[in-house]
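Entry type: protein chain
Record version: 2
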Amino acid sequence: MALQYSALCKGCWQQMHMPIPLRGGFSMPFRVVGIRPSKMNPNICTICEMMFSRMMKARTVTIEATIMFADLRGYTKLSQSLPAADVAGLLDDFYDRCAAAIWEHDGLLNKTIGDAVLAIFNFPIKRDDHAQQAVLAARQLQQSFTDQRARLDGALGADGDEFGIGVGIHTGEVSFGEFGHSHRDLTAIGTVVNMAARAQSAAQPGQILVTKEVRERAQTELQGSTASDYTLKGFDQPVALYAA
C-alpha cells in the first residue's frame, strides 16, 4: 500500500486549524523559515514536533498514547554471513518498511535504535482508535517483511527461522517532551514505554505481542486472541500478553 502524502500538515490542522502547506509552491515561504515535513512523519510539519512547548508552554506533557517497538531479529547473526553492502541495504529496507506502516496509520516514527524502531501513536495526530492503528501498523509491517523474507530465503539458509520482526505494543499515559540538557532528546518515557519494549523482547520473529490494555482498546482487531503469561525483565509479576 503506497503512502498517501498530505498537502497540509495533519497535526496543525487538527490541533489549531492552521493550514500549513507541506508540498507544492505554497510551501516554499514556510520552508524558508524552517517549517518543512517532519522526518518522524512526512504528513506533519516541524512545528508539530515541538507543539507541546510552543503551544502548551511546557517542556514535557503527559499524553495518552500507544507505543510500539519493532526489532529486527537475527540481524546480527546474518550480518556475519552477508557482504557489508547487503547488510546495510537490509537495515535500510527494514527502516523504510517500518516508516511506511507507521505513517500509513498516523503514527510517529520517533526513534531508530540499532536494529529496532520506536513508534508513538496519538501524537501529534490525535486518533481515538490509536491502539487499533498501532496493531494495524504492526500487521502491515509483518506482512510487508514476510514478502521480503521470501526473497531472501536463499541467503538466509539455516538461519532463516531466526530472522524476522518481533513487535511489542502497550497503551496508556506517557511523558512526552525533551529530556536531557547537554543533548536534548525528543521522545516518550514511562512505564508504558518500558512495557512495550519488554513485550517486544518477548516476541518471537514474526510475532506481535500486545498488552491487556491494547486488547481492550482494539477488540475489533483482536477478537479470539488468547493470553499467555510472560516473565518480563523489570516486572515482579508475570504479565499477560496477547498474540495479535
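Comment: Residues 79 and 86 are 8 Å apart (CA to CA).
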